[in-house]
């Protein structure tokens, strides 16, 4: 009967989907993790998984450069058995077996960087654990894009590092902002700032609530003031469903407003321009290579 077949199909779909869901770590699950931080990433629609994988790979590379490689998995015991040295043919066979085993073995997962499911189109979150500093690593990633003109991913778009996560309610945001912001506002130097809230799939809080709320948490130890045009620090307030992330970045405009694709395009054009042959300063023509006669050599 059609209804029965439809019911079985729906049941199978729920079972398969449920199994997949059980193996995904959701963003809301890390709210109770002390010191949880990471990077909110916007990406191309339908490419959330691929973009997250690309970002995890890049963050792992820069994390290793800043903090050293992660601890390697312990090797299996069994060396030094006192057996006779293997022959050359045994060495080759053992090498082939080892290479095949390495290909079949599951890839080592990072303990510092983990992609979490946001259940939201075009949005991903990558959790960073100590000793990683999300803001520092993201700044390094963007500086690399400026240097090379390459984005390293076609799908990763904007990166928003946050120092801490909390529940998206007034009291939790006030407590978290009070904890996070002193790092960026020293007592001995006044700084200018702008608050940049982004709200997705959330209706309880608005920009009109978030901006004064976060501004009230900026330390009053110096004459820090708002500057919407040219701020030294941009405070990021990322609200997604019932989660809020708070962080801050410097050089916001120079870093392409944290948009990897925009920055790569802009920097790629600059790199290409720098590779053009130099022009003659007087006539504006391309400089010709000096001949041996011009260099003073005998013909």
TrEMBL record:
Q: Which UniProt keywords apply?
A: RNA-binding
Q: Does the keyword RNA-binding apply?
A: yes
Look up keyword Thylakoid and say if it applies.
no
Which residue intervals define the domain THUMP in the entry?
144-250
Q: Which GO molecular function, any one, fits this protein according to its record?
A: RNA binding
Q: Which GO terms describe its biological process?
A: tRNA modification
Gene3D superfamilies with a match to the protein in the record: THUMP superfamily
Instruction: Please list where the region (Disordered) is annotated.
Output: 1-25, 269-299
Instruction: Show the Pfam families listed in the entry.
Output: THUMP
Its protein name is THUMP domain-containing protein
Q: Which organism is it from?
A: Malassezia brasiliensis
């Amino acid at each position: 009967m059609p209804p029965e077949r439809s019911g079985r199909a729906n049941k199978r779909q729920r079972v398969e989907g449920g199994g997949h869901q059980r193996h995904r770590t959701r963003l809301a699950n890390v709210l109770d993790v002390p010191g949880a931080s990471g990077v909110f990433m916007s990406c191309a629609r339908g490419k959330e998984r691929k973009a997250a994988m690309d970002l995890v790979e890049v963050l792992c590379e820069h994390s290793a450069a800043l903090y050293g490689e992660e601890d390697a998995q312990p090797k299996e015991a069994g060396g030094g058995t006192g057996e006779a040295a293997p022959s050359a043919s045994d060495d080759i066979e053992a090498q082939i077996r080892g290479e095949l085993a390495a290909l079949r073995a599951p890839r080592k997962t990072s303990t510092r960087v983990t992609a979490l499911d946001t259940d939201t189109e075009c949005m991903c979150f990558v959790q960073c654990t100590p000793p990683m500093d999300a803001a520092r690593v993201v700044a390094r990633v963007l500086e690399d894009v400026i240097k090379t003109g390459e984005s390293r991913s076609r799908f990763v778009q904007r990166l928003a590092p946050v120092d801490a996560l909390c529940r998206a309610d007034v009291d939790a945001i006030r407590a978290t902002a009070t904890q996070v912001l002193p790092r960026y506002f020293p007592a001995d130097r006044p700084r200018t700032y702008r608050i940049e809230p982004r709200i997705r799939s959330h209706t309880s809080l608005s920009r009109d609530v978030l901006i004064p709320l976060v501004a009230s948490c900026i330390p009053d130890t110096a004459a820090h003031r708002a500057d919407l045009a040219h701020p030294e620090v941009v405070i990021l307030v990322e609200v997604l469903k019932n989660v809020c992330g708070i962080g801050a970045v410097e050089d916001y405009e120079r870093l392409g407003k944290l948009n990897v694709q925009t920055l790569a395009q802009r920097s790629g054009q600059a790199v290409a321009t720098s590779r053009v042959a130099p022009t003659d300063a007087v006539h504006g023509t391309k400089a010709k290579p000096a001949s041996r006669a011009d260099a003073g050599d005998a013909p």
